[in-house]
Amino acid sequence: MERPRHQGMAKNTYMRWRLPLVCLLWEVAMIVLFGVFVRFGPEADAHWEEEKQKKNITSDIENDFYFRYPSFQDVHVMIFVGFGFLMVFLKRYGFGAVGFNFLLAAFGIQWALLMQGWFHSFENGKILIGVENLINADFCVGSVCIAFGAILGKTSPIQLLIMTLFQVTLFAVNEYILLNLLHVKDAGGSMTIHTFGAYFGLTVTCILYRPNLEQSKDKQGSVYHSDLFAMIGTLYLWMYWPSFNSAVSEHGDAQHRAAINTYCSLAACVLTTMAFSSMLQKKGKLDMVHIQNATLAGGVAVGTSAEMMLTPYGALIVGFISGIVSTVGYVYLTPFLESRLHIQDTCGIHNLHAMPGLIGGIVGAITAAAATEDVYGKEGLIKAFDFTGPYQTRTPSVQGGFQAASIVVSLLMAFAGGALVGAILKLPIWGDASDENCFEDDIYWEVPEDEEGDVYHMHNPDKAASP
Amino acid sequence: MERPRHQGMAKNTYMRWRLPLVCLLWEVAMIVLFGVFVRFGPEADAHWEEEKQKKNITSDIENDFYFRYPSFQDVHVMIFVGFGFLMVFLKRYGFGAVGFNFLLAAFGIQWALLMQGWFHSFENGKILIGVENLINADFCVGSVCIAFGAILGKTSPIQLLIMTLFQVTLFAVNEYILLNLLHVKDAGGSMTIHTFGAYFGLTVTCILYRPNLEQSKDKQGSVYHSDLFAMIGTLYLWMYWPSFNSAVSEHGDAQHRAAINTYCSLAACVLTTMAFSSMLQKKGKLDMVHIQNATLAGGVAVGTSAEMMLTPYGALIVGFISGIVSTVGYVYLTPFLESRLHIQDTCGIHNLHAMPGLIGGIVGAITAAAATEDVYGKEGLIKAFDFTGPYQTRTPSVQGGFQAASIVVSLLMAFAGGALVGAILKLPIWGDASDENCFEDDIYWEVPEDEEGDVYHMHNPDKAASP
Amino acid sequence: MERPRHQGMAKNTYMRWRLPLVCLLWEVAMIVLFGVFVRFGPEADAHWEEEKQKKNITSDIENDFYFRYPSFQDVHVMIFVGFGFLMVFLKRYGFGAVGFNFLLAAFGIQWALLMQGWFHSFENGKILIGVENLINADFCVGSVCIAFGAILGKTSPIQLLIMTLFQVTLFAVNEYILLNLLHVKDAGGSMTIHTFGAYFGLTVTCILYRPNLEQSKDKQGSVYHSDLFAMIGTLYLWMYWPSFNSAVSEHGDAQHRAAINTYCSLAACVLTTMAFSSMLQKKGKLDMVHIQNATLAGGVAVGTSAEMMLTPYGALIVGFISGIVSTVGYVYLTPFLESRLHIQDTCGIHNLHAMPGLIGGIVGAITAAAATEDVYGKEGLIKAFDFTGPYQTRTPSVQGGFQAASIVVSLLMAFAGGALVGAILKLPIWGDASDENCFEDDIYWEVPEDEEGDVYHMHNPDKAASP
User: What is its main location (chains A, B, C) (predicted)?
Assistant: First the structure.
């Protein structure tokens, strides 16, 4: 399928040595670092039998595996199928969307296990991992998948791997500042994952601005069946988001509550998305772009507050608003960002992750500040915000302040990090495609040659008979 | 893609103000009602710490969340991906199938939380919700998705929302009569979900009879890849049905047993479906319609009895029979219903849900009536049928009688409710499409304009060169 | 869509009586055998209430259902969606891939429940089943799905059912020899499932060698969207593989550890697959065949050792190597096997299951032999390898020897069994297609007739107007 494009004239997209080199070197580095640092945590180690006796644990069901593994698998599906297929909507970039997402996530989770491990699970020179680390690694990579959405179709796999390396690193630093230094709550990652990931990606795409991108305008749309593939991604993200927001919450009521709040917010979000999608189109027709994306904003926007006593109606309100904001963003803000701020945001992550992420951070700050012993119970309040040790005198309103500050920190990290990474990716050595070859699988993938008559869904008996 | 159809001449399908109005008003109503009524149940509330001490619960793993959340997520997938994609088989109605299913289910679960909450979880003026409520809300909406199958392609989204509102209400009433007043068992919902939902939908479609529907006959079929998409729906329904039938069963053996019975029934059902699909076709070829649908009848038909001591071979027999009944129904009954009874059943829900649902109710009644202390154990029998309090003197045979009566009640509710809703939907103000525009996404959706040569799977180098 | 092929001239592929007869007879046999033999195990039986009291179990959460059901569902998805859709890559064999996989797996799990039940769960003349039996039945069928990959597109459904009958039987015998007589560990089935299944299938396809298969060469490739469907299969296999390898491990740390090891191995495998896929292609482009398959080799290759103290870096190394071996196999070995050894391996199972399965067996033997009390703890070591009863004097190094011997046993069983079954399938009475009709759904399936202009993604207004 060698099309007569000017591929390779303007840019050298030949990956044969560069991509393998990066993949193999980095994987070897992972093996060495894992060998030096990573070991099983106590609940995954064969010494668990002794551990159980020591800690007087009477049943294997108390192993954290049984509290979190089902949620882990749901999150895993969101990262690989959810994000992967959500981006398959482009007519000629399905392989790249799902394949590169696969590549960067597979690398990212390894590096995240290390980075987050050094910050959070480091004991006696070793990183001790368990199922919660796997979830957190998936979360961290989620922020990279989000950023990928902004630059989808415009970067080489090497650029994506480099971005992953840096973004995971910065994610872990930002997460450490928020969760440990500022001692804030962000179970579903409105700030750490969505706000950070989205503004990071938007900054990168701004720096990588392509003035002549309209040369590949014809490939930026979807076709009928690519929209259906994308709905697979959408629905898995939508359905499993309650698991996402509750996966690392405290055992018991917090995990339970986070799932309920998320369920409610997402349900409301679908209604307002449909309403505004129809309302903002002259002919009143629904737009698949909105249905695929804005219906998910409700999950993003309760990320921080889901494990708090947001209450079901509070969750509905958050979902209501975020569906509107996100849909309006797709209609009015995305064109504005592209034309005025030179932000070419392929998937519209500003509408799905950035704005709802900010809403999520703000809602989290307000919900925390409004917490009372009456609503949470005395012990419940302490447990919910971990007001123990050095933080036992912190009040809910102070907590709210720290929550709000965390939004700003995440934004600053995203802008600074995105600028740095954008500058690195701008170097002309990474093999990205020229403007007219963007959104085109043919550049990096062997694409099957299709002939008419060969495929059922286009079979035409008459033609087949007389070609 | 404005086709020169007579769209809008016969009917006004313009949704711009009507759809947003309904969505927004109803969502606001949900928020108000949730605000007044819905709160977290004790196991999702931050007071759970105190609750645990009061009830002497030693471990967080005793929280109902850990008993039911994995099953909940499976049920969630069935409702949104399972039903959504099962209906994608139509060549030009994929957006409508998966998108409208998404819309009605997202609204329905909110309304179901309220309706079912008032009947079952109402304490001191508040509805207290937990993971079991979420499952039950999904179940309730399942019955609407079933009814949607009968009218697929022939209704506007507003009609679907109105049907959802009424059907959820009636579902909750019927469920209350069955589970509380008649005190019957129906864990997998053969009666409450399938029999009720299917006959409700069939009554609606009968009243909405379109005499000139053959005008869109060319769009009622599938294409090769739409059949593959539909298989995604089929398989997720098939695989997760054991979770569906066990999701709200009693903790322990009942949940375990329900999963095993369902697994067995579904396996048997696949074999008889394949057998009869081949046998009833002159050339002996398999028909995707049967494989997509009749293979699921086994799950429907053990819905009531799955948590009982049906035994694995009993489950195989049920699956064996229901696969045959369902496949035969597709071949002979569906054309008959359409030509004689004016029932235009797009997805053939009569074969997949109505008849197998009836079988399920009957099998449940027989299995209950045949229960003995020998088989269940003394305590086991009491626990299985909840023969406690006012029901402690009820015998299995009386229980069987009540189970049988519940089938009749469900049918009556379905016919009466369906007639009422059908009459409402017949009003000419809801924006449904004219007969020649049925089964056509173009009416309510922005459909991407596809040009030849633009899409890989139809690329033809020669043509691209000389158009 | 009656194509002017010579279908039926060379071979009689008429299924109308043969397929139904086999399906119905066999299902009746299942019902009879289940009636005689299969009952609920104690944890799924209504007597569980009494059992709990007898065994002093205080909570229903101790029921094995809650330890294993989420993993069971993941495995279930892998068998039906994972394997089913992985094989949809062929342009004209999507129905056959997913449909026949459905048929053989649905039959196979029933027969596996019996066969494995007689060997492992037989008490007082009854097979007592629980959730672990369901998982093991799915595992057993997994080996048939693997073998199906080698003969995909070249066999009739009857041949597949016959192969399933025999292969499940031999699987159960081999499994009994390994797990019970040799007392080896193989939680993820590198030997019992992958090595056995793959070499069984390769032997069968070798015996069924078709010298003129190049007559259907044009149908052996993929098209753009069939590759995307196949990625659904790939990703579900990849994501849920940690559940596969941990599903039947001991409660607690072993299950936890198996999931972590598998997660790590698979992540590493993606990187080396991508590297070698690009490196081995002249233009440096990635090949979807590799991405769809070789990325999974890491899961196969830690199947035996996942529950052992392989450690995360050990898992990375295994994944690293198996990704390379598998990708190199696709490029160099598959053509060699076809041209020299007459092994026509449609899906390349030699690269995905056979070689990685052998690696898995070897890694398992080494890891077992290297086990020490220092690493496992005294009790941990006994528990990990079940060094109890008659095996309490067995040392790790002896265990390693038995593990290695098990690879050889599995290979011998596969070759002998495959030869036997291949010979049976070669009889000219089973209705397989002629060489030019291989990889063609039209033979066994009703295929929708597609006309141009009828489908959105090929709509061309001009053409539709003047055909």
Answer: membrane
Helices assigned H by DSSP within B18-156: 18-37, 48-55, 64-77, 83-86, 94-120, 131-151
Q: Which amino acid would we find at residue A125?
A: G
CA-nearest residue to C63 within chain A is A61
pLDDT tens digits for range C103-117: 999 999 999 999 999
CA–CA distance, A239 with B82 (Å, rounded to integer): 12
Confidence of residue B12 (pLDDT cuts 50, 70, 90): confident
At C440, is the pLDDT very low, low, confident or very high (cuts 50, 70, 90)?
Answer: very high
Is residue A401 packed enough to be buried (19+ CB in 10 Å), middle (13-18) or exposed (0-12)?
A: middle
Task: Answer whether A224 sits within 8 Å of B447, measured CB to CB.
Answer: yes
Share of chain A above pLDDT 70, in %: 94
**Which DSSP state fits B90?**
B
Whether residue A277 contacts residue B67, with contact meaning beta carbons closer than 8 Å, is answered with no
Rounded to an integer, what distance in angstroms lies between the CA atom of residue B343 and that of residue B346? 9
Q: What is the mean pLDDT of residues B442-467?
A: 55
> Do the Cβ atoms of B163 and B144 come closer than 8 Å?
yes
Which residues fall within 8 angstroms of residue A335, CB to CB, at 6 or more apart? none
| Chains touching C (3+ CB pairs < 8 Å) | A, B
Q: For this complex, say whether ipTM is above 0.90.
A: yes
DSSP letters spanning C377-440: -HHHHHHHHT--GGGTT--HHHHHHHHHHHHHHHHHHHHHHHHHHHHHHHSTTS-PPPGGGTT-
Q: Å from C460 to nearest chain A CA?
A: 12
Q: What is the largest CA-CA distance in chain A?
A: 84
**Each residue of A18-27: pLDDT tens digit?**
999 999 999 9
- Taking the C-alpha atoms of residue B385 and residue B182, their distance in angstroms, rounded to an integer, is 12
Task: Specify the pLDDT at position B313.
Answer: 97
- C-beta atoms of B286 and C444 within 8 A: yes
| Residue written as token pair 């700050």 | A365
Distance CA B438, CA B90 (A): 11
Minimum-distance CB partner of B224 among A287, A295, A457: A457
Relative orientation angle of helices C94-120 and C18-37, to the nearest 10 degrees: 30
Of A61, A84, A464, the CB nearest to C66: A61
Q: What is the least distance, in Å, from the CA of A321 to any CA of chain C?
A: 33
**Residue that is written with structure tokens 């101790």 in the block:** C62
Nearest Cα of chain B lies from the Cα of A56 at a distance, in angstroms, of 13
**Could you report the per-residue pLDDT of C401-439, keeping only the tens digit for each?**
999 999 999 999 999 999 999 999 999 989 999 999 999
Q: Which residue has the tokens 């309090």?
A: B389
CA distance A55 to chain B (A): 14
- Which residues from A are below 8 Å from B113, CB to CB? 312
Tell me what pLDDT residue C458 has.
37
CA distance A298 to A266: 5
Give C368-389 pLDDT, tens digit per residue: 999 999 999 999 999 999 999 9
- To the nearest whole Å, the CA of B341 is away from the closest chain A CA by 34
Tally helices (H) and strands (E) across chain B.
Answer: 20, 3
Residue from the list A47, A63, A99 with its beta carbon closest to the beta carbon of C286 = A99
How many A×C Cβ pairs under 8 Å? 259
Name the H helices within C152-293. Answer: 157-176, 196-207, 224-246, 253-279, 288-293
The closest of C2, C5, C19, C152 to C429, measured between CA atoms, is C19
- List the single residue in A267, A272, A452 with the smallest CB-CB distance to B24: A272
| Residue of B17, B144, B457, B462 to mutate, testing the A interface (most A Cβ within 10 Å of its Cβ) | B457
Q: Phi/psi at B127 (nearest 5 deg)? A: -90, 120
pTM (2 decimals)? 0.94
